[in-house]
Design a protein that fits this description.
This protein is an alpha/beta fold. The chain contains twelve helices and ten strands. The structure holds zinc ion.
Length: about 325
């Protein structure tokens, strides 16, 4: 485990992340398909659904829950919710508040012997998620943008999450090196904030824009505020070769963060193709990742609370004590 993550560890073994928040919201009957704000719309229309989804992940054993702000932005809220910029800012901050309320409920419902106080990670998705044109999976937009422009885009969101008191910022599903550079630079403007930086990947060596994962790790090494770097929303089978490709480069201060999707295929027209054969699952592969140095392990799209329970059983050899509540 990298040294910067140590203050966050309250238990033995890796910290367990949640699964896909939107996956769980949809499993409970919310329709997010095709929505330009995705799960972030519910910050305005159904905050209770977000609290409940967070709570189910906490019961399933997550040590860290991630806010419903992946696709949230001041500009997006003004355009799609017809609200003022002040109201948009409050909505963004409410993502952290809802997650904290769920943590408080979880802690007060837990047995007194339960020492676990879960963390709240404020989700920041790539600029391409706002564009809502599939480019979040290629990073193509970054070719036309400067590092400075990408920093301007992300600044308000990071500012809101930090102001609302997120324990960590989760820069996630980042497809491009340039955007990663922008985020690492931007983070310095918030010197009290810690973060992880997680990339989407196209194969066992490259992130989504085709750059080598090793180059992505070198960017992370430059930051004094990152606790972890890694990959999310890729098939589980890609994780081991990706981490292996960069194993000699990772700074001793950093850990790996790993939260793949289920391995099912995403089709921009049809959504998740559930019929295809899926690769080995997260609970089957988690010990390998742990041996490789992963200290934050969870799931992304198509991973629900039941998978997180299974992951916790694999990693900690027991159910979450709170699951008996
Ligand atoms: Zn995902």
């Amino acid at each position: 485990m990298g040294s910067r993550l140590r203050p966050y560890m309250t238990d033995y073994g890796p910290l367990i992340l949640d699964g896909g928040l939107a996956t769980e919201l949809e499993a409970q009957g919310t329709n997010l398909q095709g929505d330009p704000l995705w799960s972030a719309r519910l910050l305005q229309t159904n905050p209770q659904a977000i609290r409940d989804a967070h709570y189910r992940f906490l019961l399933s054993g997550a040590d860290v829950i991630t806010t419903a702000t992946y696709q949230a932005s001041i500009e997006g809220f003004i355009a799609h919710l017809d609200v003022s910029s002040e109201c948009a800012r409050e909505l963004l901050m409410s993502g952290v508040q809802l997650a904290k309320e769920s943590v408080n409920r979880f802690v007060s419902d837990s047995r007194p012997t339960e020492q676990r106080r879960p963390l709240v990670a404020g989700s920041v998705g790539p600029y391409g998620a706002f564009l809502h044109n599939g480019s979040e999976y290629t990073g193509a937009y970054a070719e036309e943008m400067s590092v400075e422009e990408l920093k301007v885009w992300h600044r308000q969101q990071v500012d809101c999450l930090a102001a609302a008191g997120a324990d960590l910022v989760a820069f996630e599903t980042i497809p491009s090196l340039k955007e990663a550079e922008a985020l690492v630079e931007l983070l310095r403007e918030f010197p009290n904030s810690k973060a992880w930086l997680s990339f989407s990947c196209k194969d066992g060596r490259c992130i989504s824009d085709g750059s080598l994962f090793t180059d992505a790790v070198q960017i992370a090494n430059r930051s004094m505020q990152l606790v972890a770097v890694g990959v999310n929303c890729c098939p589980p089978a890609l994780v081991e070769p990706l981490l292996d490709s960069a194993r000699s480069l990772l700074s001793p201060d950093l850990s790996w963060v790993v939260y793949p999707n289920s391995g099912e295929e995403w089709d921009t027209e049809q959504g998740w193709l559930t019929s295809g054969k899926t690769s080995a699952s997260i609970p089957e592969l988690c010990h390998t990742w742990m041996k490789q140095g992963a200290a934050l392990i969870g799931g992304c799209c198509r991973i629900g609370p039941a998978h997180i329970t299974e992951l916790r059983q694999q990693l900690k050899g027991r159910c979450s004590p709170a699951s008996a509540v």
